Amino acid sequence: MDLKKASAPVNTVTYNKTAIEKPTGNIYEAITVIAKRANQINAEIKKELTEKLEEFATYNDSLEEIFENKEQIEVSKYYEKLPKPHALAVQEWMEDKIYHRDANK
């Protein structure tokens, strides 16, 4: 997933309920699919952030020494400014980029 190309809103947006439930015909099922995708996106972002922050990790036994790394702070600020996983999931849902199926059918 390329987060730089994501155009999901950073702020809260109100969506049309009928547009969200249209693919499934059931608002609860649609929200469940969106929530599962949001969890997947969150896991991807967390993994990516952890990998980038590991580059800056210093392992000291001393609790008194605290190092401020400007690159590490910039990476953290970048990830804080990204759209939230649920906003990305809703955007994907509205653009019909999420594959879903009913296992009972």
Automatic annotation (TrEMBL):
The keyword Transcription appears for this protein: yes
InterPro entries for this protein: Pol_omega/Rpo6/RPB6
A Gene Ontology molecular function term of the record: DNA-directed RNA polymerase activity
The protein, known as: RNA polymerase Rpb6
SMART domains to which the protein is assigned, alphabetical: RNA_pol_Rpb6
Cellular component, GO, one term: DNA-directed RNA polymerase complex
Keyword Transcription: yes
Residue ranges that the Swiss-Prot or TrEMBL entry lists as coiled coil: 35-66
Domain of life: Bacteria
Protein's GO biological process: DNA-templated transcription
Keywords noted in UniProt: Coiled coil, DNA-directed RNA polymerase, Transcription
Protein's organism: Flavobacterium aurantiibacter
